[in-house]
Amino acid sequence: MIKYLGSKRRLVADIVRIFRAFPHARRIGDLFSGTSRVGLAAKRAGFAVIANDHNAYAHTLAVGHVEADDGPLREVARAELARLRDAPPHHGFFTRTYCDEARFFHPDNGARIEGIREAIEAAGYPRPLRQVLLTALMEAADRVDSTCGVQMAYLKAWAPRALRPLELRVPELAPQPAAGPCRALCLDAREAVEHMDVDVLYVDPPYNQHSYLSNYHVWETLVRWDAPAVYGRARKRTDCRTRKSPFNAKATCANALADVVHRTRAPVVVVSFNDEGFVTREAMEAMLRPRGPLAVLAREGPRYIGARIGIYDPKGRKVGTPGRLRNREFLYVSCADRSLAACADLPFTDP
Fold first, then answer.
1. Could you tell me if residue 131 is inside a domain?
2. Taking the complete model, does pTM exceed 0.70, yes or no?
3. How many domains are there within the chain?
4. Angle between helices 107-123 and 129-142 (to 10 degrees)
5. Per-residue pLDDT tens for 115-163?
């Protein structure tokens, strides 16, 4: 899967264990699906998953990893990827913008990415094959990028991986779970939650002011293929300035999260948040306790690489110093049904 700030790679086993702690649970809602790491793990664990994200690239990943089932589709995708490998390179908007004007990819790989993307667009593939192929292309591009993991900036010198040739692979797929088919939505979270008839709602919202659209704007353009107006050294899409989420603002984050909690019909809500976010542990517990019994699991881990190496200006001069090197991730498990809490193997407390 693509490198992703906020990825739950270290927590995914704990999250799935929480889902499994409720014997009644068959359907999981993943409200902010991102790379779909959690959604795919839940699908592999046998749950029917509804994944949602309002960004086009994340929705594509959710269709490609969660909605798409392993089986005959894998061989179709393998055959189409073999054909796409022979697509002629193309040096157009994508290569000019993200390889020449910026340096996210080496121009050789950029032209291959662009040629393959043009071929996907021309073929008119149906869903979910189209999304599986776009997922393969995003993941291939991620393996040869020249960043520290986010697309707010690129490395001054080419990363060694950026000089490797682009390689297309079939994305990770899972068979349809016994609980039923999975699907992916592309809605605002406060709207999506009303379309999720699920037993457990998993909520992993943005923690702070950093927008995932801005952090991964190249993927958004690669999926939308809309040749947007761009700005700045990172050649970000201009809609990064206008497509704002209430979860990315300190003044509105808590209210937006409370609105989601209020709207859901799921008896169990699992919220993932960390101690650097806009909502403190005390405020989160106060928000969730009125629903019923609450369990809180804490895990400590390393912070994002920028916090460890400091901040540098475009000339390579160090202009910032590292802060603390570790943070705490919290998993809040809120159960609106006391009988469900009583049979779950989790340390619930009364409100």
1. no
2. yes
3. 1
4. 180
5. 999 999 999 999 999 999 999 999 999 999 999 989 999 999 999 999 9
